[in-house]
Amino acid sequence: MTHKHALPEPYPVVGAPEDGTVLEVARVWINGREPAIFVRPAYDDPRAMGVLLAELCWQFSDAYQEHRGVSQREALELLKQGWSEGHQRAEAAQTQRGAQ
Description:
This protein is mainly α. It contains two helices and two strands, in the order ββαα. The chain is globular.
């Protein structure tokens, strides 16, 4: 069953062959406290996933401009700041776990 708040499948996926040439690489839900995330490392080279993440940020910045009234440029800069802050928190948590 599809959740009523699920996003629709993008048009290139609808009717695509199920032979592995089209893959879902991430599913992300926010439950009010933290994200619930499932990922598939679809590329052999992690840099390719980095490129995909950059494209995702551009898509989010466009969506913020369209739906939230934030300029695309400002949204992109805020996304980059959030990216850095998220990495800092994750590294601090990793360090703390290693010290225990």
